[in-house]
Amino acid sequence: MQMIIKGLRIRSKSGISRILRHLTNGDDNESVAFLRGTAADIQDMHKDSIAKGATYSVRHWIIAPHEMMDRPQMRHVLGMLAEEFIFDARRAVVVEHRKKRATEDATDVHWHVLVGEVDPETGRVLKSSFDRVVHEVVARASEYAFGHRFVLGKHTKSVIKGLRKRNLACIADRLENAFSSTIALPAEAFTHAQHQEKKRLGHNLPDLRHEIKDIVARAQSGDDLSRLISALGMVVRQGDKPETWIVADAVDGVLIGALHRLAGARKSEVSALMMAAQRTNAPPEPKNSADPTRMVVPTPQQIETAKPQRAGHDQTASDASILLADLQAMEASATEILKTPVPAFSPSPAMRSTKKAIREQVSELSNSRNLRWDLAEELWNAPSVRWWCYPLGIGRRRQRRIADLEQRIDVADGRIREIAARISAQESRLLSEEKAAKTLFIEKIREVNRKHRLATETLTLVPIARSIIRETPEVTAMGKDNVLGLAKTRLVADFNSQLPSVESPGMRL
């Protein structure tokens, strides 16, 4: 996932009642806040465009970051949009929405920015050329500025050219190096209009896409995939275009979207999966594998060495039965060891404590930055002090108000620097704790792998040792370790006999 910036142009004849309902709707969002402007300002934008006879009335941007972003950072994005599309950022209406995203690791906040398509003072219409490329330019530049991870977009090649044109070669180089080996460009899974249309029909496309992506990753065949998707109340059928499969509602047959786009996969891969026969879970029999029941006959020297010094058939039978019982216990123990799963890495208590402290500090940092945003907005909107304010007795009062806001902003800046320094120190501490925890984890993995390797060797040698005891019971006098040594010798000999013989060129006549 990446920072998503989408731009929509609202037509003058379509009205703005629907977008106003969406912006002010608290049912779909945990919280709604107008950070700048009001709904009345959006209505004025619409009226100005109608008065000018413009085709479009309002430009609507959606800024949805994947990683956490605060209001001052959003103001930075707004400033870049204003510079690219040539409008005054002060006349933009900014609305903040909080809602849970379809993916668990995505932040829960996004912003709506609305600007009139027509400037009421100059009558100039907003720039719209190559707007999708410009959106990606702003998104990639913002990701670089905020330290977010780069993610490949659909117009990456054009974005790199655009960054260089804007004298941002450092960002272009980083982006080009990050995706120098990537060829395929991801297509948009669904448009904003499709999202809203399906939402009105009762389908949440982001959640549905997340579930279908997981189903395609788990499905073993086309029948398996269709069965899993049918559990969601959907059906999969072949589309009109070649190698295209679509997902539709099982009740009314309404088209949801193309399967490969919803799954975020290549069309050829999805088509191959749908056409594949049901796979069997049984693994194929390995060819030319050594038969553990076919053993090499011991040499006369081994048998002679294995003969006990004491006589008596009963004693030999007793030794054999004891040794077989020991081998059975070894086999059972090795089987239990192989059932032991390889441990997964889990953070240590110290790491959990430090991560919790970092989360609390990050939350406090976000609140402090939001407070600074509010103070800066209040200072921006504070009435200026003019010469005529002093005769009226309001000049000093306005001066004190501005000075108070400036002082509170300075305090907020100091608080932000203090919290950022604490976060940096805790992150360094977390790195040290993580390094120590991973060192211990590697030792555990090595120990488990060593035990698994010994257990696998034991399970391979025990059947061969049993066969040797049945063939020559006298070898029991040698003891368990020597019998297992004979089994290993026989296993190596049997393996070597399976290898194809290679004739040396020098031996040819």
Summarize this entry quickly.
This protein is an alpha+beta fold.
Describe the 3D structure.
The chain has 509 residues and is an alpha+beta fold. The protein is 55% helix and 10% strand. The protein contains 16 helices and eight strands. It has helices at residues 17-24, 39-52, 71-85, 131-146, 156-165, 169-178, 192-200, 205-218, 222-230, 259-263, 267-275, 300-306, 313-339, 349-381, 395-471, 480-498, and strands at 4-11, 31-36, 56-64, 93-98, 109-116, 234-238, 245-249, 255-258. A five-stranded antiparallel β-sheet has the order 1-3-5-4-2, sandwiched between helices. A three-stranded antiparallel β-sheet has the order 6-7-8. A hairpin with a 6-residue loop joins strand 6 and strand 7. Helix 13 (313-339) runs antiparallel to helix 15 (395-471) and helix 14 (349-381) runs antiparallel to helix 15. The two termini are 68 Å apart.
